[in-house]
């Protein structure tokens, strides 16, 4: 990733911290930073600073033209460089506005399909700066859809994804003149280098076994391999699909959902003490300790909270599967919380739409947002340090091989 040296003058800082409008100060700061980035990119492409004499120069500056960019802190004006005898190119606008473009497009589609309110029409016309038609929407979709679709269908075979976390959220989509509930199935993986990736999103008719099986089959057809652990909630269709599509792979039941299921079945007066005991069980240092705590808890509450103890006993093995992993990997792999934070980001935008005008609109908005998050993950810090896990995996494989040799 390119590194840029950015300067901020004292007047701008004064407006940012002491001005009457905080958003206005942030907008000015953003405008200054992005204009400096554009100028630095022009220098990179021309291989020369302004007025610099060098044999490596690839062209000449020819002024700039204004480009207005609508952001969450207001509209800013960028000075896009002109190149004499060539063309200046930047991903600055497209890369950081995909999700915003998808949101506006969804609103626009609501208007042209006659399913939105007059207020939505006014908002979208203000955002777009002009009135729009079906042809306008179609042209904008042609620019954004191929980018999102290509990312969502990209090959996954370049690396193994040892840990996979899956979850779904329900959306309202208008189809055949009726509003129907559809499940947005989302997968996240942790690769051998320790980085998270959004594996993909698929819109299913429901959260049934058939829909999840189709989703997993699609991921495997794109090259998903090397999975050791799948983390999810206890939805029946999802669990059956995992066991069918990932035979021999360990399933970790989300501990957050598991605890909630137990407490829902616990008398209110006992919920605090049952929670403490189950939490200690899930945080146990090893499986033997967890089983000891399980037996003690069941013995103590099997008459006072029989339904809760039945839920606990039935789900214990799946909820504590993560205890077989080395300690550093347990906290982030014992729940679906990391993926549910993505769902919250989707919900913030989905609430603006409420009812998507069609499936394509839903996939475009969710895909564009997930694509931006995926790019941030790829350029950020590792999610997990995989060195210890890979060593542990190699050791286990060597032990199995030695046993097979002895038997033979």
From TrEMBL:
Keywords: DNA recombination, DNA-binding, Transposable element, Transposition. It comes from the Bacteria. GO terms for biological process: DNA transposition. Pfam families: Transposase_mut. One of its GO terms (molecular function) is transposase activity. InterPro entries: Transposase_mutator. Belongs to the transposase mutator family. Required for the transposition of the insertion element. This is Mutator family transposase. It comes from Brevibacillus gelatini.
């Amino acid at each position: 990733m390119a590194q840029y040296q950015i300067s901020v003058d004292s007047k701008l800082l004064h407006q940012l911290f002491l001005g009457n409008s905080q958003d206005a100060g942030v907008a000015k700061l953003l405008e200054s930073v992005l204009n400096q980035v554009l100028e630095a990119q022009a220098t990179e492409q021309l291989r020369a600073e302004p007025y610099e004499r060098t044999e490596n120069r690839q062209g000449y500056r020819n002024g700039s033209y204004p480009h207005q960019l609508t952001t969450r802190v207001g509209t800013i004006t960028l000075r896009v460089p002109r190149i004499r005898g060539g063309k200046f190119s930047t991903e600055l606008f497209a890369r950081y506005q995909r999700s915003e473009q998808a949101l506006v497009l969804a609103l626009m589609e609501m208007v042209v399909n006659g399913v939105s309110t007059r207020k939505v029409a006014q908002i979208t016309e203000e955002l777009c700066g002009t009135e729009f038609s079906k042809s306008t929407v179609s042209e904008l979709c042609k620019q954004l859809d191929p980018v999102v679709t290509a990312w969502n269908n990209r090959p996954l075979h370049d690396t193994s994804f040892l840990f996979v976390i899956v979850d779904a959220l329900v959306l309202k989509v208008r189809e055949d003149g009726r509003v129907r509930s559809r499940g947005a199935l989302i997968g996240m993986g942790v690769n051998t280098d320790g980085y998270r990736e959004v594996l993909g999103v698929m819109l299913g008719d429901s959260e049934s076994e058939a829909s999840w099986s189709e989703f997993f089959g699609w991921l495997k057809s794109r090259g998903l391999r090397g999975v050791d652990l799948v983390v999810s909630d206890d939805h029946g269709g999802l669990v059956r699909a995992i066991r069918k599509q990932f035979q021999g792979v360990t399933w970790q039941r989300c501990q957050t959902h598991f605890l909630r299921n137990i407490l829902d079945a616990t008398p209110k007066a006992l919920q605090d003490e049952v929670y403490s005991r189950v939490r200690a069980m899930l945080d146990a240092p090893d499986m033997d300790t967890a089983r000891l705590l399980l037996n003690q808890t069941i013995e103590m509450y099997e008459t006072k909270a029989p339904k809760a103890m039945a839920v606990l006993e039935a789900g214990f093995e799946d909820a504590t599967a993560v205890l077989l992993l080395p300690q550093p990997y347990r906290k982030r792999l014992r729940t679906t919380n990391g993926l549910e934070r993505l769902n919250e980001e989707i919900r913030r935008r989905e609430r603006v739409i409420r009812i998507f005008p069609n499936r394509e609109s839903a996939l475009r908005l969710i895909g564009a947002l997930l694509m931006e998050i995926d790019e941030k993950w790829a350029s950020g810090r590792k999610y997990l340090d995989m060195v210890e896990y890979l060593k542990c995996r190699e050791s286990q494989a060597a032990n199995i091989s030695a046993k097979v040799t002895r038997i033979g």
